[in-house]
Amino acid sequence: MEQCKGLIAGIDIGYSKIQASVYSYNSRNVQTVKLTEDSKEKTSLANVVAECMRATGTSQIQSICVTIPDYHSDEISAVRDTLKKCGVSDGRWQVLSRVESFAYYAYRQKSELHAAGVALFDYTSEGIRCDYLAVRKNDNSNYLLQEHTGYTSDILKKAVISKELGLAENELCTFAEEYFSKRHVSAAYLTGEGFDVEKLPERFAKLMVTRRKAFVGQNLFAKGACFAAMEILKPEVFKNVIMLLDNHVKCGIEIDISSYEKPMRFRLVRPGSNWYTAGRTVECILEDMRSITFKIITPENKYYDEVVDISEIPFREGKTTRVSVSVSFADSDKCNITIKDLGFGEFVKSSGKVISKELVLRS
Known about the structure:
363 residues; alpha/beta; six-stranded mixed beta sheet; five-stranded mixed beta sheet
């Protein structure tokens, strides 16, 4: 972290404002950046990056992670393009969902605050979004699992609009009692405009801290994103954990190949990868074959095959049938396989054949 003191930042892009946190080399912890009202209102990512650099006195960018509330390709691409214009090189940035950012925040805390599992309650005008995260072991691998639920009612919505949380105290208590009766939670985190109050209703507050710790705050997504930016440089928190969150690919994808005449299994996609960055392209020399079998590995370590017919690609003698095999994702469950005839340099012209197949991964 000390080798090159460039900017390490986490930025949370909300619907109405942006929040930012940075790593301080002086205090060696994550600090919130107080943004100007102008940058909040315009929600300009480029302006916020510039403010983070001014706040830290840095002229270079080490790593940046950005969280967005709606994890879709258009929004991700817009963030990517802006970061590139800001001079952030590939491999130095990530776009996270808010739950993924929360995971980095929660699991950066002391172990007793996440040993059993953690819960995030994000209370907006639509109700409370609940995400329960826990690390579980299976077949000598550690998995970070996510369970998403939601709770809403007219009373909860009214309490947010009126800024009178006491109106919903009975409903909040009923919700919390039912939620915690079914899950072991070491710490609960409350955020969102519904919990942006000076004081929680007394009975609800006591319930939240019974047999667990509870925290209320409005900047955990930006801080979690900054912790994730630190992980880019030095993986620690989830170094030996496979993250199976909503925006992560749950299955691995492998193919059988021959390397120096020795058969081996080649991994194309690692389970736990963020779907937006999980894509990969490799080049292969084909033997006389009419199909390629893709091995799909589920989180339960079970295998099933997906076969792609490549008979349209002409086979050529002398190991001159060269193809590219590309894997890309539309979301965490939908995968596109593209196999393209590349020809063989100046010796053999490509047939121009391209084979495509969409897979829906069964996890």
